[in-house]
Amino acid sequence: MFEPEYRIGLRVLREKVGTWPTLKIVIPAILKSMRIRYHADKDADEPERTKAQLKNHFKLLAQLYKELRRRYGTQRTNEIMRDVLMKGGKAFFRGFTPLGEHDDLVSFAGVYKAFEKNNIVFDVVEESKERFEIVVKRCLIYEAFNELGIADVTQWMCDIAFEYFSAYHPNMTYMKDRTIARGDDTCHEVFTWQ
Questions:
Q1: For residues 188 and 172, what is the distance between their CA atoms, to the nearest angstrom?
Q2: Cα separation, 30 vs 77, whole angstroms
Q3: Are 116 and 135 in contact (CB under 8 A)?
Q4: For residue 63, with 0-12 CB atoms within 10 Å meaning exposed, 13-18 middle and 19 or more buried, which class applies?
Q5: Which of 5, 42, 43, 100 could form a disulfide with 88 if both were Cys (CB 3.0 to 4.6 A apart)?
Q6: Phi/psi of residue 69, each to 5°?
């Protein structure tokens, strides 16, 4: 019924607040999210259509956040949601196929581009066996979260990405020195191969 990231996130929520309070949060959130359906305008470009899909994917997360905030306040909700996102968010990255024994950074770049075209609009600055560098012009997840009223939690998506990519492959290092979610105009990511 739920995507893997939601199953993990709900388990974390239950651990944080207990079974009964989780049900009191989850049931209204599910019912509210079921009544919502996002659509892009018929003349919308590809990123706008993709963003509508992301909003539909994350509408339950937005309702969970709002229910939590109503019951526990912003500070406690943010503490809970950070854990929910950090643990559940790793499952969101399941689209990143692990690299094989003979793969390299060029192989990773292909996997990255195939997955991230569903989340960001980016330019490749460099793509070689030693370095894969991109500049993100639009973070569709950030835009979707903003429109869903949960922009505050987007920064943790960046933390999930950092943690995930830092452990993705022993020969790969990851650096991100700008993020849209933390106020920069673009995100800047560099992957290097040792």
A1: 16
A2: 18
A3: no
A4: buried
A5: 5
A6: -65, -40
- 87: Cα within 13 Å, side-chain hemisphere: 15
DSSP secondary structure string for all residues of 134-172: EEEEEEHHHHHHHHHT-GGGHHHHHHHHHHHHHTS-TTE
Q: d(Cα 29, Cα 65) in Å, to the nearest integer?
A: 9
What are all long-range contacts of 30-33, with beta carbons under 8 Å and residues at least 24 apart?
Answer: 30/60, 30/63, 32/63, 33/59, 33/60, 33/62, 33/63
Beta strand 172-178 with 131-139 is: unpaired
pLDDT tens figures, 134-175: 999 999 999 999 999 998 888 788 888 888 888 889 999 999
Extract the tokens encoding 93: 């990255």
Q: Which helix (H) or strand (E) holds 99?
A: none
Alpha helices in 4-153 (DSSP H): 4-17, 19-34, 46-92, 105-116, 140-148
pTM: 0.90
Smallest Cα–Cα separation from 122: which of 31, 22, 47?
47
